[in-house]
Amino acid sequence: MARSPAGAWAVLGALLWGCGLTLHGGMLYPRESASRERKELDGLWSFRADFSDNRHQGFEQQWYQSPLRESGPTLDMPVPSSFNDVGQDGQLRSFVGWVWYEREATLPQRWTQDLSTRVVLRIGSAHYYAIVWVNGVHVAEHKGGHLPFEVDISKLVQSGPLSSCRITIAINNTLTPYTLPPGTILYKTDTSKYPKGYFVQNTNFDFFNYAGLHRPVLLYTTPTIYIDDITITTNLDQNTGLVNYQIFIQGSEHFQLEVSLLDKEGKVVAQGLGCQGQLQVPSAHLWWPYLMHEHPAYLYLLEVRLTAQTAAGSMSDFYTLPVGIRTVAVTESQFLINGKPFYFHGVNKHEDADIRGRGFDWPLLVKDFNLLHWLGANSFRTSHYPYAEEVLQLCDRYGIVVIDESPGVGIMLEQSYSNVSLQHHLEVMGELVRRDKNHPAVVMWSVANEPTSFLKPAAYYFKTLIAHTKALDPSRPVTFVTNSNYEVDLGAPYVDVICVNSYYSWYHDYGHLEVIQLQLATQFENWYRTYQKPIIQSEYGAESITGFHQDPPLMFSEEYQKGLLEQYHLVLDQKRKEYVVGELIWNFADFMTDQSPLRVIGNKKGIFTRQRQPKSAAFLLRQRYWKLANETSLVVEDVTLMVL
After folding, report:
1. Spatial separation of the C-alpha atoms in residues 179 and 624, rounded to whole Å
2. How far apart are CA 386 and CA 597, in angstroms?
3. CA 625 to CA 631: how far, in whole Å?
4. Cβ distance 563 to 553 under 8 Å?
5. Is 274 left (phi over 0), alpha (psi -120 to 50) or beta?
6. Residue ranges of the alpha helices (H) in 18-152?
7. Tell me, what's the pLDDT at 312?
């Protein structure tokens, strides 16, 4: 376990956490175009964990000032990936503190010599707190492990005859009561049991705190006068699709903007001029969820062309953005997409897999989407943090509906409802909405999962947080996921949809499947009577270990997992005719957790193993989801043929 003198770490933590930078402006996904290039920096990076007692050696010796190899041994570390499971060092797997990454990037000559080119370093995710240097110069800091940040490094790479630049990133995975998610550092002071300075990281969430550069790192370019941000909202006027756009430009106040909307065949269906306007699309193809329509997930392409005159001549920037025309609305008992009732039959997931941890991986992602299609799932929640941008892009393309959740999990302590915590949570929601606002697949924001929303400070905290999120994006409903009692939940009055987690006959009344129907029906009736809002069963499930069979069913057997799901489904089938609008199984696949006597190498509530192989419950759920699709689909033909 890691060691550190408490005093030194407390001072360093306060110093560094206090100087984080909030970056303003847009966060458009870096796409190549006629005016933009990108250079991937994925692959092997030099890596070192700072095992010094105070975790501060890297700063004391200024490892960022020269190549990392000059200050000591380094490891090869793949990016993107978590650093925890790649090697054979048990100390590194459970390491808490600062780790250092470094990569030398070769730059195209035009990037370093063309002063009309802007060069940007973008980091998809660094968990949790990151400090970035380029050629030894401090350029950026970011607090939060699941959202991208970027910095303009043009002046550094265009200041001389450079053909490369050295990028150094220091990352700290320590969680405090004021981070998101929160955590605590517990010092073990009994020197008869623990070495001096011994501490452990405690968390109140049930997944492993993987760390590192989890998502792609890249360089990209734009002109110095460029399209900084685009905001799209859509609506319907009978059969006419309405695409409202707002475009933000940086670098000049004098420019021309042309906007075109293209259909799938590349035909221009609407055009506009200027930074703000509305495109009208007669007989529009709507973006429908998977299995709800015979042509789901229809995407138009918005092309934006910027032209500006400079002393050196004309300058242009081009950006394209997929656009789905759809509406979202909530009534007292329904969730509506394009004015039609939508029923969530889906999953909760984790970004989690063998070896790579939480690292982004295209083959794994495509496999997961193939399994979602096989399962007949039409939705998932990004439990319990924002997922990679590429995940949402596939959801847009495949029609998988998303409840987009912040990393607000494990909010248990009263400290975590402080003004410091609230301010950070507001900033995180701002970053999340800024990144994901244009995805048609995202239909609702979730600001937290299973907080202690019965505590007195929770009322103001969630009232403020939800109001802030609605102000950022009035076009989507907002929720948080609760496991509190309906009578004492102080945040529930402010949500648009009630999302409830419950584990009847698992975490209590162990083994007694016969009580589920009564308890679940009572749960739904109490919540609906109190709030008159649609309800989603946002988590339910049981653990099963592949190959464990027992009849009559016993806990941890595949039969018990199936039996528990069947009892839930009986009640869900009754209540979905009234006000229940969705069910999301916990979990899509087994995933890693901290070690404890309650977990056998991770959480085994997946209907698939961590290696994505089906358990018995997967076949049960597949049969159910395709049955639900037949009942709720707008498709004329019988889709049951797809499950044969």
Report:
1. 39
2. 29
3. 10
4. yes
5. left
6. 57-60, 90-93, 109-113
7. 84
DSSP character at residue 224 = S
pTM as predicted: 0.93
Question: pLDDT, tens digit, for every residue of 485-509?
Answer: 999 999 999 999 999 999 999 999 9
Give the Cβ contact number of residue 601 at 10 Å.
Answer: 11
How far is Cα 615 from Cα 311, in angstroms, rounded to an integer?
A: 66
Instruction: Give me the pLDDT at residue 635, please.
Output: 58
d(C-alpha 404, C-alpha 395), whole Å: 12
- The Cα–Cα gap between 293 and 287 comes to 9
Q: Are 378 and 399 in contact (CB under 8 A)?
A: yes
CA–CA distance, 587 with 33 (Å, rounded to integer): 39
Q: Which residues are 584's β-sheet partners?
A: 346
Residue 20's pLDDT is: 29
Q: Where are the beta strands (DSSP E) in 349-486?
A: 379-381, 401-405, 442-449, 478-482
**pLDDT digits 0-9 by tens, 513-567:** 999 999 999 999 999 999 999 999 999 999 999 999 999 999 999 999 999 999 9
Residue 325 neighbours by CB under 8 Å, 6+ apart: 234, 236, 241, 242, 243, 281, 284, 285, 286, 287, 298, 300, 440
Active site residues: 450
DSSP state of 286: P
Distance from C-alpha of 475 to C-alpha of 290, rounded to nearest angstrom: 21
Q: What are phi and psi of 317, to 5 degrees?
A: -135, 140
Write down the pLDDT at residue 24: 63
| Tokens read off for 609 | 């193993």
Q: Which residues contact 403 (CB under 8 A, 6 or more apart)?
A: 344, 379, 380, 381, 382, 443, 444, 445, 446, 479, 499, 538, 584
Residues 6+ away with beta carbon under 8 Å from 584: 344, 346, 347, 348, 379, 380, 381, 403, 536, 537, 538, 539
Q: How far apart are CA 350 and CA 443, in angstroms?
A: 19
Number of Cβ within a 10 Å radius of residue 62: 11
Which band of pLDDT confidence, cut at 50, 70 and 90, is reported for residue 161?
confident
Question: What is the tens place of the pLDDT at every residue in 272-283?
Answer: 999 999 999 999
Nearest to 427 by CA among 125, 23, 122: 23
Kindly tell me if the per-residue pLDDT of 23 is higher than 80.
no
How distant, in Å, are the alpha carbons of 173, 250, 630 from that of 209? 8, 37, 40
- 214-246: pLDDT as tens digits: 999 999 999 999 999 999 999 999 999 999 999
User: Which amino acid is located at 227 in the chain?
Assistant: I
Q: What is the pLDDT of residue 163?
A: 79
Q: Cα-flanking dihedrals φ and ψ of residue 233, to 5°?
A: -130, 150
